[in-house]
Amino acid sequence: MAERFRSFGLATPPAPRAIRADDAIALLRGGQAKEASLLAYGNGRSYGDSCQNRAGAVVDMRALNHIRAFNAESGVLEADAGVLLSDIIAHAAPYGFFPAVVPGTQFVTLGGAIANDVHGKNHHRRGTFGCHVESFTLLRSDGKTYRCSASDNRRLFAATIGGMGLTGLMLSASIRLMRVPSLDIVEKTTPFRNLGEFFDLAAAADQANEYAVAWIDQLAGGRNSGRGLLFTGNHAEHGSHAASRAGGSLSVPFQLPFNVLNRPFLTVFNAAYRWKKGRATAPGQTGYHSFFFPLDGVRDWNRLYGPNGLFQHQSVVPEEAARSVVPELLTAARRAGQGSFLTVLKRFGSIRSPALLSFPRPGYTLTLDFPNKGTATLALLGELDRITVAAGGAVNPYKDARMGAAIFAASFADWPRLEALRDPAFMSDFWARTAGSIDLRRRGVEAAE
């Protein structure tokens, strides 16, 4: 059973042990949960090891999957933590509501979206997912259930949003959805020849549109370096209110023994994608699946990276540094001979999250993913880390499977405040590798003194 509880990146081992949510709840309520023995596991869409706990067990949350209440006037929805965003979309769509923030897949749980404080293509308008959380219930190893909100148990509220599941077991949550005229999106594609053109377009695109994101041809060098497509969108005034919970009809039915997404394939794919998408520059109406969740159309697409999986690297750098730093990051990847299948660039706005630790901050964020080629890929990722933090930026922990303690501390100076509120029964491989390592070194220094 544990083989099912893997990171979506497939670059880390599966969880050695998994237990049911009911069993974890019984342990916690009885005060019997051992130190570092638990970690909630949603639907397995985290790329890194923040969803793994080799020291204990992961808790299968998908059984807690009921929508409890929905107010069709205010758009406030209450649901179990294991409910998928796809179920929330399907439930609320007939009433004219849609989640204010969605990530790149609809197959994440409500608890996972909160624990990772996910962001979408409209951070400049709506901030992160955590900005739209009304309250949640949290069960801790002291046996108590806490109702957390901006006014009740405020410190736990802030630490749990973006807290990677370390503050306890979230049982349910209430969120505010946004009213939309339809689920369909009026999308416009604007080609740009280089990153300078993109940066000239980005602020105006954000101001004029609900959604904005750019695709970059990461392999293009020379005078074509940084070329890509800017996608902008807004909900259509007249369109569909029908939603679907189903995944795509295509799938990768088994783990391939080799990496399909190699450099020759990516060169052809990037050229074809740019040609196909770049032709349609007039606004056109499209369904929400293809705009928000294109990869959901192919089940288990992560298997295309081969048996060693993939690493995703997402960074954010201040706006004033982006024009020099983003090209440097892309150049480093090309120099290393590594090809990124999905290269996404977008602008974060200034809306603050209520989270204690939240990755989005004003500036530009670049996402790259690479097949896991061992030490060569790890060396590249280390170089990308170095470039990012030297520019005053941060590396996303929610998608990471290998960053060091120093990079994490440089990205999130407030990590000790989360550690102070972490439930001792909860631990992740990510936290043990980063904050745990920092904490151990600090204790060693204190003991020596």
Automatic annotation (TrEMBL):
Keywords: FAD, Flavoprotein, Oxidoreductase. SUPFAM superfamilies: FAD-binding/transporter-associated domain-like (SSF56176). It comes from the Bacteria. The keyword Oxidoreductase applies. Residues 8-180 form the FAD-binding PCMH-type domain. This is FAD-binding oxidoreductase. Belongs to the oxygen-dependent FAD-linked oxidoreductase family. The keyword Flavoprotein applies.
